[in-house]
Design brief:
With about 130 residues, this protein is mainly alpha-helical. The protein is built from 5 helices and no strands.
Length: about 130
C-alpha cells in the first residue's frame, strides 16, 4: 500500500510501512498484532491509574506507550502520552487527568486505524 499521510490521519502510514519493511513481510502481521495488544494493555493500565489518580503509575504507562506509539506512526497518540507522562511526573495530576480525554479518543482511533490497516494487508484478524 502507498503511504500518503493525510492531514487528519491518526497513523502516519509512511512510518508504519517503513517499520514493516524493516521487520520483513514474514514479521509484519505479528508486529502489528503485538502493538495492538500493547495499546490495549497500556490503555487499561493508564485508565486504572487515572481512576486512582496515581500519577506514578500514569507516568509509567504513558512512558511505555509513548515510544511504541511513535514507532508505529501514531505520533498524535505519542504526543498526548508525553503530555500525560510529563504532567504526572511533575505532580500536575489534574493536567494529566485532563489529557486523558484526548488520550482516550486517540487510543481508540489509533487501534481502529491499525486494525483496518492490518485487515487490508492480511485479511480480518483471526483472534
Amino acid at each position: 500500500p502507498e503511504g500518503a499521510q493525510s492531514a487528519g490521519a491518526i497513523i502516519d502510514r509512511g512510518v508504519l510501512e517503513t517499520l514493516l519493511e524493516d521487520v520483513g513481510p514474514e514479521n509484519a502481521e505479528p508486529v502489528i498484532n503485538a502493538f495492538v495488544k500493547e495499546l490495549a494493555l497500556q490503555t487499561a493500565f493508564l485508565e486504572e491509574a487515572a481512576d486512582r489518580s496515581d500519577s506514578d503509575a500514569m507516568a509509567r504507562s504513558a512512558h511505555r506507550l509513548k515510544s511504541t506509539a511513535g514507532s508505529f506512526g501514531a505520533s498524535r497518540l505519542s504526543e498526548i502520552c508525553a503530555v500525560i507522562e510529563r504532567s504526572a511526573q511533575t505532580g500536575q495530576t489534574e493536567a494529566a487527568l485532563e489529557a486523558m480525554a484526548e488520550f482516550r479518543k486517540l487510543a481508540k482511533a489509533s487501534g481502529e486505524e491499525l486494525d483496518a490497516f492490518r485487515n487490508k494487508l492480511f485479511g480480518s484478524a483471526t483472534e
